[in-house]
Design a protein that fits this description.
mainly alpha
Length: 286
């Protein structure tokens, strides 16, 4: 008696099986364009958050200086009433400037990390991947923004405990977060650009310390632009920190500000910083 013919599997099953084998032989299609950029930014931000989760001492130690500015400088000058702030208590006026200052101080030394990565051989490995250099710099810049944002939250909580009248409107706080990230992205790119020029950590630390205080005092963080001498007013107009402070002050205190101009300047400054740092990344890795 002859055996029954074997049942043929459906064509769809063969097709799916072939597709499964193709996935084992043919590598998945590489992400390109904006997908690479978003993936790199997300990866760098995740790394920074993991560092903060495993070592929270940096948050506490970096919170000391802003707390001293608000406790000593802010409360003293509130009593003196020597600086015109348009009817706003001076400690309230100072708080957004200290938020911007603490974020800048974190970002301006971010180039040290990329020099350390070069010395450890990590940067060379990153550069041989198909990831664009601009994506690497953007990822690191916004990772610095995430780190600065955590610091900004700490400063806002300290200011709230001291009785500073800050807004808690969610949309305004979202705008604060954007301003902090954009400003920190620019200053971290400035630091990485300097790192690509000086190539050593010691030189970078010296230059970073030399420019942080002029950037801080040459902005509207401590006093209105109107009370500055004319030459300092001209400098403050080219200082991105002034625009960041103006945005933070307008959002947190409701004072008159120029948000469209502030965000525009921060966005343009950050873009130029990414371009400059990306162009020097290869020189840093040699």
């Amino acid at each position: 008696m002859s055996e029954a013919p074997a049942t043929q599997p459906p064509a769809s099953v063969d097709h799916k099986h072939a597709e499964g084998l193709d996935l084992l032989v043919v590598p998945p299609r590489a992400r390109t364009g904006w997908r690479v950029l978003l993936a790199r930014v997300g990866a760098m931000c995740t790394v920074e958050l993991q560092k903060l989760r495993h070592d929270r001492t940096e948050i506490y130690t970096r919170a000391v200086q802003p707390a001293l500015w608000l406790l000593i400088f802010g409360q003293t000058f509130t009593r003196i009433k020597a600086i015109p702030t348009g009817g706003v208590p001076y400690i309230d006026y100072l708080a957004p400037g200290i938020i911007a200052q603490s974020a800048m101080f974190i970002a301006i030394f971010y180039g040290i990390m990329i020099i350390w990565e070069r010395d450890a051989g990590i940067l060379t490995k990153l550069l041989v991947t198909p990831t664009p250099r601009s994506a690497l710099i953007t990822g690191k810049a916004f990772a610095a923004g995430v780190k600065a944002l955590v610091q900004a939250i700490v400063v806002i909580l300290i200011a709230a405990l001291l009785g500073v009248a800050l807004t808690w409107n969610p949309l305004r706080l979202l705008g604060v977060a954007v301003a902090v990230v954009l400003g920190s992205a620019f200053f971290s790119c400035l630091s990485m650009t300097i790192a690509g020029i000086v190539l050593t950590r010691d030189r970078l630390m010296g230059i970073g310390q030399a420019i942080t205080m002029p950037l801080f005092f040459g902005s509207n963080a401590l006093y209105p632009v109107s009370v500055m001498p004319g030459w300092l007013q001209a400098i403050s107009k080219f200082n991105p920190l002034s625009y960041q402070v103006d945005a933070l002050r307008g959002l947190l205190l409701g004072t008159p500000s120029h948000l469209a101009l502030d965000y525009g300047v921060l966005l343009v400054a950050g873009t130029l910083g990414i371009i400059a740092a990306s162009s020097l990344l290869g020189r840093l890795a040699r």
